[in-house]
Design brief:
The protein has 24 helices and ten strands. By secondary structure, the protein is of the alpha/beta class. α7 runs antiparallel to α9 and α9 packs antiparallel against α10. The longest helix is centred in the middle third of the chain and has 52 residues.
């Protein structure tokens, strides 16, 4: 199950479980395995051809025409019949051409496979997120989830396209180099190999340490993205409270932490790089000294050609050893990033948890039967206590009460955002858990108090209620929502861009767009969550008129703050501390002189 990033960041090492989860990425590579396999063939060929460079270059540097005589490689050169520097140079150019060709196809194939696989991962990860239950978004920040799909994908992308191939290539060079070094001079090879254990041990400890710092920096980066997103989404609050400096300071603190972690990581990378340079260069000097001694004397153990070849292999292997820790650290980070993505994809969502398959004909009849509920993140706080009520088709049910009494929770449960703690909800006599979730929600429409429109045009936002709606149907819905009058005043009419979250429209205009969207959906059950409470009098009148038209011929649940708007409701449910304390029509509740009558009196609403 996906866990918040802060909890995950406590782990500093790659466990077997982490690697096991990361291996799920091969499921996404499987459809492209043929292309991937061909890419690996080209990789192997290009890597092996890479060994030809030090082998031939050493002989070219020797410059002797008697390459076939004496030395450990003498018999080899006699077999391949390379007898002069021109032939060696030609062989080098042929080798370069072959490497270029195989390298081109390897990069092309690896890129295609990687991009196809990552496209599939992006699609699946986003699809999983869209179908996640509401509680998932209550416990995970949107900015963090966005970072997981963007930053983590980038980590995996770089490794699949280049790091894995480069790591394999360097490994081939080291393995092949060791083989040739032993053939050329086992004495010098032992000196070279003496550096391997030290480098390996340092690389392992360095890789773990740098991975810890990099992961902390990645966590801080995700947190800083959240600060940006929250600040920009709530920019009106930031400005109205003149908290720009506070918000900037909060972000500065986060990016200072990122900088400190990255600088610390760079410091240790620098120490390691310096150590490798000193160690490798010292080893090369020592090997050159010993090699020169082996080529001198009355009975030299090596000829100059083989010595130059040995040195070319040594230099190339030194570069390979130097690049391995960086590549290994990159692969480690990618494993962590892959684990994050695979956890999102593996986390159960609504499709997994809601197994109901019935598709009954829904008329709008709803019954709450002894419903108890607490939010999953606050199990100690009971929000609804033994709530029971029924509504018949086409009735208007008003929910009133003080803030926190449980009204909005009823709306969330109608939409099946959460599982009940106890009791049941029935639609037309069928338990909600047995009804297919998509079928159930397709018969509902929700108009919230704070409407957030999607970035795009007015047409696109209205059509969200019915993606197959015609132009005439969209315009008719806008007219019924009292939205067409102001839409016509815009130069682009339905093609007018609403801006991020509908910021270019007023509150009343956004509400009427949302109502038009609901009208287009033509639901059996309508849920209105204080849809007019945040509007001015003129806007409220236009929106309320649209709502009155929308509620006709369908079951409506109206969460009301202004009690004057629900006087004609068929049933008014009065909530207090999660319980229904009163129910009835407006006049009968006034006569009871209880909670509802007190609320009416406080608002100065006329009794009749």
């Amino acid at each position: 199950m996906f866990r918040p990033r802060k909890e995950k960041s406590k782990r500093e090492k790659l466990s077997k479980d982490s690697i096991k989860k990361a291996r799920r990425i091969f499921v996404y590579l499987k459809p492209y395995r043929t292309m991937f396999a061909i890419g690996w063939i080209f990789l192997v060929i290009s890597s092996v051809l890479g060994l030809a460079f030090p082998l031939l270059m050493g002989q070219l540097l020797g410059g002797s025409s008697d390459m076939g005589s004496g030395g450990a490689m003498g018999s080899f050169w006699e077999n391949v019949n390379i007898t002069n520097v021109t032939t060696v140079a030609l062989a080098l150019f042929i080798s370069f051409g072959a490497q270029a060709l195989t390298g081109f196809f390897r990069i092309l194939l690896f890129t295609k496979v990687t991009e196809n696989a990552l496209r599939d991962i992006r699609k699946d990860a986003f699809a999983r997120l869209v179908y996640m239950p509401m509680d998932f978004f209550n416990s995970n920040k949107v900015g963090e989830l966005t970072s997981r799909i963007s930053a983590d994908i980038t980590q995996v992308q770089d490794v699949l396209r280049t790091s894995v191939a480069e790591f394999f290539r360097q490994f081939v060079i080291i393995a092949g180099g060791i083989t040739f070094l032993v053939i050329l001079s086992w004495k010098l090879a032992l000196i070279m190999l003496a550096t391997l254990p030290v480098l390996a041990i340092v690389a392992v400890f360095f890789g773990r340490f740098v991975r810890k710092l990099s992961k902390q920096a990645q966590d801080e980066s995700a947190s800083s993205n959240t600060i940006i997103e929250e600040a920009l989404m709530g920019i009106s609050n930031v400005k109205s409270f003149t908290n720009e400096l506070f918000t900037i300071g909060k972000y500065k603190k986060a990016i200072d932490n990122i900088r400190d972690l990255n600088v610390k990581s760079g410091l240790w990378r620098g120490f390691f790089a310096s150590f490798v340079i000193i160690f490798i260069m010292g080893a090369i000097v020592f090997i050159v000294w010993q090699g020169v001694l082996l080529t001198q004397g009355p009975n030299p153990e090596m000829n100059p050609n083989d010595f130059f070849t040995f040195m070319m292999f040594t230099i190339m292997m030194g570069a390979s050893f130097g690049s391995l820790p960086e590549l290994f650290a990159s692969i480690q980070k990618a494993i962590g990033a892959t684990e994050n993505l695979m956890e999102i994809i593996a986390t159960p969502n609504e499709k997994d948890m809601r197994t109901g398959s019935l598709k009954p004909e829904l008329t709008g009849s709803v019954a709450f039967k002894s419903v108890n509920f607490h939010y999953p993140q606050r199990k100690d706080v009971q929000v609804l206590n033994d709530v029971s009520f029924e509504s018949q088709s086409n009735q208007t049910i008003a929910l009133v009460g003080s803030s926190g009494a449980g009204k909005s929770t009823v709306a969330s449960l109608l939409l099946q955002y959460y599982d009940l703690s106890g009791g049941s909800i029935e639609f037309d006599g069928v338990d909600s858990t047995k009804i297919e979730l998509e079928h159930l929600r397709s018969h509902m429409a929700f108009v919230p108090q704070e409407v957030i429109l999607f970035s795009g045009t007015i047409r696109e936002n209205i059509a969200f209620g019915d993606l197959d709606a015609s132009e005439e149907e969209i315009i008719e819905a806008a007219k019924k929502a009292n939205a067409w009058d102001f839409i016509e005043t815009f130069p682009d009419k339905l093609e007018t861009e609403v801006g991020d979250r509908g910021i270019q429209l007023s509150g009343g205009q956004k509400q009427r767009i949302a109502i038009a969207r609901a009208i287009l959906k033509n639901p059996k059950i309508l849920i209105l969550d204080e849809a007019t409470s945040a509007l001015d009098s003129e806007s409220e009148k236009a929106v309320q008129s649209a709502l009155d038209g929308l509620m006709k011929g369908r079951t409506s649940f109206v969460i009301a703050h202004r009690l004057s708007t629900i006087k004609k409701a068929d049933t008014i449910l009065v909530f207090d501390h999660g319980k229904i304390v009163e129910s009835g029509q407006h006049d009968s509740l006034i006569e009871m002189n209880g909670v509802y009558a007190n609320l009416v009196s406080l608002q100065g609403v006329e009794h009749s």
